[in-house]
Amino acid sequence: MPIYIWLTGILLFAAFALFAFAQxxxxxxxxxxxxxxxxxxxxxxxxxxxxxxxxxAIVQGGDWLDWLGEETPAGAGATAAAQELAAxxxxxxxxxxxxxxxxxxxxFEVEIETNYTVGDSIIPGTESMKAKAHAAAxxxxxxxxxxxxxxxxxxxxxxxxxTVNIDPKDFDPDDLPDAxxxxxxxxxx
Length: 189
Hints:
Shape: elongated
Number of domains: 1
Radius of gyration: 24 Å
């Protein structure tokens, strides 16, 4: 009988310990989802800003083709977009959305902390522990054009399955397609 009680106690302790690890894993997964969403939001906001700046560059003249591959977005609203998505996922953005370059593509990195804790468990201290996670998202151009394209003349862009024709002399910013046609946004890490 004492061995049975002893073994039952060990099994209960192991079950409670496994439950604590499951709680921690659940909090970590929630934190990573919030970080991924925040990083994507920051990069998408910068992508939209990049298309607006591209339209301005076409109107002003000059070498606007650089905006399709070499320009790094300023990302003025990237941090606000990341904060909003983190909050929607019950998390808080730590600091600001940091610009970065991954494999030659511009993007943003964020770090978040959950607003909730791991919870009470048999392991002391978990009731006040919050999960942290970071993620990075990049903006990748989807448009190709002829190497000898002249930015002062009409240019045909091959953006995935869609063709975009831009004539800088007869350009209306509303002629540009949605930002998602010209640039893709995806997680980098």
